[in-house]
Amino acid sequence: MSGILAFCRWLEQTPPGAAVRESLWLFPAVETLHLLGMTALMGTIATVDFRLLGCAMRRTPVSVLARCLLPWAWAAFAIQVLTGGLLFSSEAVKMVANPAFRLKMFLIALAGLHALVFHLAARRRMASWDERGNLPLAARCAGLVSILIWVGVVAAGRWIGFI
């Protein structure tokens, strides 16, 4: 743990970390971009997940929806990584000890693993889903699990400031 704390101390002293922490307007501006990125990320992911659940866009083939929205999700995720990294660099020592921050990072890793497994398993079968009325139970479960994980990410992120 001392190596992680040393890295966090160093990170806080970098020009970006110090600038975000010391500027009157930079932290709220970066946090606003972080929230906008989260909105875009959640919107794209939730749309696909609700389609998997059969609750939205039932006439749109899953493969078409995924092909259209996933590039936007990746762009939003890139914004999240950039802005989240800047926010973290401004308070790294404090954040690394925060249980809500740790939970958020764990859930993001879990969401990534879930998405990887889903896409590897579903890639070949997705076209056949487009021809059926109901999606397989596994696809619907994947959509539900994804929504629950991402709601957890948002909730944990919100709790960071209060713990």
Structure write-up:
The model has no long low-confidence stretch (mean pLDDT 93). This protein has eight helices and no strands. The protein is mainly alpha-helical and 163 residues long. The longest helix has 29 residues, at 62-90. Helix 3 (26-53) runs antiparallel to helix 8.
SSE blueprint and pairings:
Blueprint: H1 2-13, H2 15-22, H3 26-53, H4 62-90, H5 92-96, H6 99-122, H7 126-131, H8 137-159
Helix pairs in contact: 2-4, 3-4, 3-8, 6-8
Spatial separation of the terminal alpha carbons: 20 Å
Helix content: over 70%
Number of helices: 8
Task: Tell me the number of structural domains.
Answer: 1
**What oligomeric state do these chains adopt?**
single chain
**What is the ordering of alpha helices and beta strands?**
HHHHHHHH
What's the alpha carbon Rg, rounded to whole Å? 18 Å
Task: Give the class from helix and strand content and strand pairing.
Answer: mainly alpha
Q: Poorly predicted ranges (pLDDT <50, ≥5 residues)?
A: none
Shape: elongated
Strand content of the residues, in percent?
under 5%
Short synopsis of the structure:
The chain is built from 8 helices and no strands. It is elongated.
Features:
163 residues; mainly alpha; 8 helices
